[in-house]
Amino acid sequence: MIKIKNFSLWHFLILLIAGIFLMPLLFIVGSIFSGFSDNFYHLYDNLLLEYSLNSLYLVLGVSFLVTLIGVSTAWLVTFFNFYGRNFFQWSLILPLAVPSYLLAYVFTEFFDHSGTANNILRNILDAERSVIFFPNIRTIFGAIVVFGFTLYPYVYMVSRVAFMNIPSSVIEASLLLGKNSISTLFNLSIPLIRPAIIAGITLVAMETLADFGAVQHFAIPTFTTGIFRTWTGLYDLTTALQLSTILLLVIFIFLTLERGSRNKIRYANSATTNNSFKPVQLKKFNNAIAFVVCFLPVFIGFFLPVFELLNWSSQVDTLISTKTIIAAKNTLYISFTAAMLTCLIALLINFAVRSFGLPQPINDLLSAGYAVPGLILAVGITKMFTNIDTLSSNLDIFITGSIFGLILAYIIKSYAISNNVLNSSFTSIPISLDESAQTLGSNRLSLLKNIHVPLLRTGLITAFLLVMGELIKELPATLILRPFNFDTLSVSVYLLASEERMFEAAFPGLVIIIFGLIPIYFLNNLILSNNK
User: Fold this and answer.
1) Which of 106, 326, 363, 532 lies in the 20 to 30 Å Cα band around 263?
2) How many CB atoms neighbour CB 459 within 10 A?
3) What is the pTM of this model?
4) In the chain, what are the domains?
């Protein structure tokens, strides 16, 4: 390995990757120094307050709902035994497979004047067709419900793990002192897992702020829809970048809170043992209440959209169209390619941290791309590519509008997922193994190829599936950066839904859910492994 004053080619490679990762963000933030146009002042005077308030209402409402659902269900399946408990332990994660924009489409049609819900009640009550039982769902309240029932698993998962890490002696001591289960929950358990709850809420808030498909379908003016309309409607990329900077600042505030909460979780649990508290058997009424509380989130967030999509698919003459097949191929091609590259980059960077002394903060900085909304990332990459095309115009090579921009966005967005998995896998390999191999004459590349990669096979497969499952659902970045006439499943569903062709969008939506179920298995195993 060539080194110049302890600076190796590995360090150069990592710095190059870090530069590519950060360049789109620098273009976004740099737009602040480009001056403000009349369009920006128009948005500032007339729409910016509306964008801010709607985004705030969504974050507050969704945060409350996911906390209520996530903490209550995690508490029930951890500390009580009731009918269906074993089923709910893993099925409560299923709504993660359903993108929020897909549930928004289902809700709109299901609760529409002529939708399934109103028709069922009309038939039961023998009411006139003009009678409407459900209000218009395309409101902020409707969006809060949609986000709440698709994002609550974030809070459920971290709360469940935190509940399981509370020593059983603490719970038993509270009960012996005469406190009932409800009092123990509010006065002891929730304060102990508060950092975990805050971390989950922070992730939910970032996902809510970054969403485009659901709020666009519900016609709710937020920062993401404002950025999209400024760019595609006013054709003002600079103002779109400046709006993105404002939202990016808010996102990184949430990211900072999440990092702080994660540190507190590690500190709080560092001296604890896994919870061996024996679940209390619930009887009769309490058993039924626990079942209903856990069943409703799973039904609304997963089974309802799946059943409705199946119902719509059965009413289409041609279930699998040529466009759907092409979109599925494109989806698998782009997500497979990006997932492979992401895992390869994560593998090399974590190996450099382990074997070449690369500072861990650089690796953590690369993971920050997960917090950047796909729409903002797409805007930054477009600006970066247009500048590169301008500088290289003499070469007649243009990368704006190519597949490379979409792959780059996917890698930046999903690097944190693969990095977390591989980082954890690397820590399970003893350093003494590396030292023994080097003592026997193995160089670092041989060490990576012949020892680390075989031992990391499970982690690599897990990271690959998790990344691929996440990328298949990605909409904003795909919608903006995809090459001409290159539609994925998520884009196909979005375009069909925007034209109110819901029945035709049903089958592609089902395929997205099926692909999204793949990482659910691994997430469930991760949670259960914390209780062993």
Assistant:
1) 532
2) 22
3) 0.83
4) 12-46+317-532 (1.10.3720.10), 51-315 (1.10.3720.10)
